[in-house]
Amino acid sequence: MRKTQNVIVCTPKSLPDHKIVDAAAVAVRINPANQPASHLMAQALAGAPPTPARIALLVAKRWPSAGVHLTVGFLDNPASDLRKRILLHMNAWAKTANVKFTETKTDPQVRISRLDAPPEMSGYWSYVGTEILSIEKDQPTLNLEGFTMQTSEGEFHRVVRHETGHTLGFPHEHMRKELVNLIDAKKAIAYFGATQGWSEAEVRQQVLTPLEEASLLGTAHADPRSIMCYQIPGTITKSGQPIIGGLDIDKFDFAFAGSVYPKSVAKGAALRVRPHDLKRPTSKKSNLRK
Ligand SMILES: [Zn+2]
User: How far is the centre of ligand 1, averaged over its atoms, from the C-alpha of 283 (Å)?
Assistant: First the structure.
């Protein structure tokens, strides 16, 4: 049902409720700048109780600005030509950013699957940034439903680079009013409720609130051709046509990635996640818990 017009678009993937608070604490520990400024947080929480889960949703999931060097593994053992091709497109971000994805068979941090079932695991998706650290080691963090060597080059650009953007910590943050206006609110609430378990309020916040109101972390500008431009399946648009979004990393994306993970900062000092990063300091934890 996501295959209207034979185009699959990215379905936002969010952590299950019971992991949200701990994952936010990990994100802040890995990069303290993930904590939103207090005035933005107050603005976002206005009129609602500041529960730990609501606060956690406002925390960004970026890796340290020193760079992102992550290992990648494949859960369904594709042939080496396909593995290489996927890695090549993931590393397209390295043109301007201190980003490096390296294949490994041992305990990979990014785990790629090509599932077409069950519905909540199928399609194209990735968890965002440091969220991948909260996923069980035998579970995928990024899905490329049905990708093969026969998949067109255009789809490798549109999909693999977009999902890799999520893995780098970039959400769908270039959402514009004219896109939101194309969405059927009722269908969207039903769809994301069924596929993501989101409440109506969450769907309104994540999908139905245009950028001007939703842009809490202050991106520089809205770029409708961004590779991270929101993608929407045809099943929830008023017209039945999917919103495909950007087709490739554009110059603004490249500049943005280069500013978040600058190449000049530290050669050889890029992040390597160590087990102690995942331990929960009791003080932080209790701050975030009820
Ligand atoms: Zn996406």
Answer: 33
Could you tell me where the DSSP H helices lie in 9-146? 17-30, 38-45, 52-58, 80-90
Question: What is the rounded distance in angstroms from the CA atom of residue 157 to the CA atom of residue 168?
Answer: 16
Q: How far is ligand 1, taken at its centre, from the CA of residue 246, in Å?
A: 10
CA–centroid distance, 61 to ligand 1, in Å, is 14
Separation of CA 40 and ligand 1 centre (Å): 24
Q: What's the 282 CA to ligand 1 centre distance in angstroms?
A: 33
Give the distance (Å) from ligand 1 centre to CA of residue 245: 9
Q: Which CATH superfamily is domain 4-172+250-273 in?
A: Collagenase (Catalytic Domain) (3.40.390.10)
Percent of the chain surpassing pLDDT 70: 84
How far is the C-alpha of 247 from the C-alpha of 230, rounded, in Å? 11
Burial class (CB in 10 A: 0-12, 13-18, 19+), 63: buried
Q: Where are the domains of the chain?
A: 4-172+250-273
Q: Does residue 194 register a pLDDT over 60? A: yes
For residue 12, report the distance from its CA to the centre of ligand 1, in Å. Answer: 6
- The phi and psi torsions of 164 (rounded to 5 degrees) equal -65, -35
Q: Residue 197: helix, strand or coil by DSSP?
A: coil
Of 57, 34, 33, 35, the C-alpha closest to 45 is: 57
Which pLDDT tens digit goes with each residue over 219-275? 556 677 889 988 888 999 999 999 888 999 999 899 999 999 999 855 545 555 554
Residue 253 CA to ligand 1 center (angstroms) comes to 14
The model's pLDDT over 64-73, given as tens digits with 9 standing for 90+, comes to: 999 999 999 9
**CA of 14 relative to ligand 1 center, distance in Å:** 11
Structure token pair of residue 137: 């080691």
- Among 94, 34, 21, which Cα is nearest to 270's? 94
